[in-house]
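Supplementary Note 2. Why include the ligand at all?

Several targets in our set were suspected to adopt different conformations when bound, so apo predictions alone were not considered sufficient. For every target with a known small-molecule partner we therefore ran a joint prediction. The input for adenosine-5'-triphosphate is given below.
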Amino acid sequence: MKILNSISAWQKWRNAIPPTQSVGLVPTMGALHAGHQSLIRRCRQENDICTISLFVNPTQFNDQEDLANYPNTFEADRKLCEDEGVDAIFFPDYNELYPDDYRYRVSESEVSRLLCGAHRPGHFDGVLSVVMKLLNLARPDRAYFGEKDWQQLQLVKGMVEAFFMPVTIVGCPTVRDTDQLALSSRNFRLSQVDRQKAAGFPRILSTQAPAEQVARLLEADGFAVDYVQDFKGRRCAAIHCGEVRLIDNLPLYEKGEHI
Ligand SMILES: Nc1ncnc2c1ncn2[C@@H]1O[C@H](COP(=O)(O)OP(=O)(O)OP(=O)(O)O)[C@@H](O)[C@H]1O
Ligand SMILES: CC(C)(CO)[C@@H](O)C(=O)[O-]
Ligand code: BAL
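The joint prediction is reproduced in token form.
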């Protein structure tokens, strides 16, 4: 497995792959868990070459404390990738990936302003900009994203369509813990007490009731609610559990009931 931490090393490696070989990319911010592992496995199955990027992208963090506290587990990440048969890890640094210091950016003017976008100004400009860069550098046939970040998945699909980018975006189901909490790198930051309490989030979110009522139920359980909203066939929500912001979404029936 190659670990490539400069763009020139990455491009040299990428250019040596013959066009007959299909390439998959799993973009991540590291601190890998079984959710990422499921994306890697799908990528491994569907492509000749499986690549992953590990980059904590500062431009998508509206909250500097959140960025400073983002977990960094490079050694464990490297081992997980090796065990899963990843061919190459792309591990760039900010100055190389942003030679323009973010003067140029990708912006979406509707969906990016809703839900998480309403609470994290500029977040999706940062996400779309870095995903555009990573796709341009990795030139994958397929790129893999989790449904846990439903709004992100819709926006990335929209960008690829809008800019005629030659890549298929593959959405992968949310992997959950035994108590149904969606796995997330930020879960590592929950205290033991808050981790137990967090199980109430998916449980209450699956209540068959209007979104406003579900928001009130979450508040009654002690969560600070950013939003609970139905969007593109999903019930989406973001809450704060102690210091940690958590997101989740579930499919809706047409009548607004959960499957
Ligand atoms: N539980 C999960 N199931 C499926 N995919 C996931 C899961 N968690 C994250 N992913 C996907 O992995 C990719 C990389 O996500 P990222 O590195 O931000 O991890 P994360 O766990 O979502 O971290 P965060 O705490 O920042 O939300 C994204 O496409 C994301 O949707
Ligand atoms: C897609 C992504 C890697 C871009 O930084 C990030 O938003 C994530 O990990 O979901
Ligand atoms: N997985 C979403 C990345 C973020 O919260 O910034």
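Residues 2-172 form a domain with the Rossmann fold fold (CATH 3.40.50.620). The chain has a mean pLDDT of 96. Comparable summaries for the other entries are listed in the accompanying table.
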